[in-house]
Amino acid sequence: MDRSWMNARRISEEYEKGVSVFLQYVKENANSVNETYFCPCVCCLNQIRQDLGNLHDHLFMFGITRTYTVWTWHGEVLDQPMTSRGTDYVEEWMSDHLEDMIRDVGEDNFRRANLYASVINDSEQPLYLGCTNFTRLYATLKLFSLKASNGWTDKSFMELLELLKDMLPENNTLPIRNYEAKKVLCPMGLEYQKIHACPNDCVLYIKDRFIKKSDKNTGEEGNDGAPSKVMWRLPIIPRFKCMFSVKEDAKNLKWHVLGRKCDNLLQHPADSPQWKKIDETFSEFGADPRNLRLALVTDGMNL
């Protein structure tokens, strides 16, 4: 079921239709208590029950929690792969979800975090002789992004690769197998952490990654089974390094010192007393224009 509407503007027709589909799904699948259901808006966070009328109003007034992509509170059964093959299988299962990471992180961020840090082999190799718009790496990323956003199966994606391989000029470098395409993307130098999460995004597991199950025969505990959900975290320091490795981006990052007009008017956060206070308090930090300030803005947040 398409859930892209969850990221659409609340005044859009796409969002309105999506809410209608969701409410119909709730009515048909969710367990009600006195005809009330858990409300997934950013205020109720599936903790407060509402009737369908109030649920409808909340989704438009506050918006739906965008991370709630598996409707477990409303009757959807999580397709959770379980196995007793141990951690080797778990790593294999997580690596198979590369498209999930591209979809969650975003193609542009995925590319910026890696492409400029990997300047050899695939990132410099043209897709075919004379091609100036696509390298082997960039073409693979664009295709994999389409696979992720449209939910293509591995079989259909491989058939597309084979067709494009035949359509492109001879001796092109496009991968012909799904596995080969993943091997192109995985060594891109992307530094990331895979943090296991509960299906409803309310708990992150740093150390105890799996539910421990006791062996009925030996009584021993083991970490069997794949995680219910995986959050992909891109550490911010490598991202900063990549940003400064691009000349134009590096120039923009230092604009507040090198290009800003200082006329005692409040035209930029650097003109604010709070910014100046930080520079005065941490003089060594403020003296280097490459040091970055971060701002956090949220519009409803699943804590």
Please provide a brief summary of the model.
This protein has helices spanning 13-29, 52-61, 87-95, 98-105, 107-114, 136-150, 154-167, 178-185, 236-244, 247-253, 255-258, 273-281, 283-287; strands at 36-38, 49-51, 193-197, 204-205, 213-214, 221-222, 229-233. By secondary structure, the chain is mainly alpha-helical.
SSE arrangement:
Blueprint (H helix, E strand, L loop, with lengths): L12 H17 L6 E3 L10 E3 H10 L25 H9 L2 H8 L1 H8 L21 H15 L3 H14 L10 H8 L7 E5 L6 E2 L7 E2 L6 E2 L6 E5 L2 H9 L2 H7 L1 H4 L14 H9 L1 H5 L16
Antiparallel strand pairs: 1-2, 3-4, 3-7, 5-6
Helix pairs in contact: 1-2, 4-6
Question: Your description of this structure?
Answer:
The chain has helices at residues 13-29, 52-61, 87-95, 98-105, 107-114, 136-150, 154-167, 178-185, 236-244, 247-253, 255-258, 273-281, 283-287, and strands at 36-38, 49-51, 193-197, 204-205, 213-214, 221-222, 229-233. With 303 residues, it is mainly alpha-helical. Strands 4-3-7 form a three-stranded antiparallel β-sheet. Strands 1-2 form a two-stranded antiparallel ribbon. Strands 5-6 form a two-stranded antiparallel ribbon. A hairpin with a 6-residue loop joins strand 5 and strand 6. The longest helix is centred in the N-terminal third of the chain and has 17 residues, at 13-29.
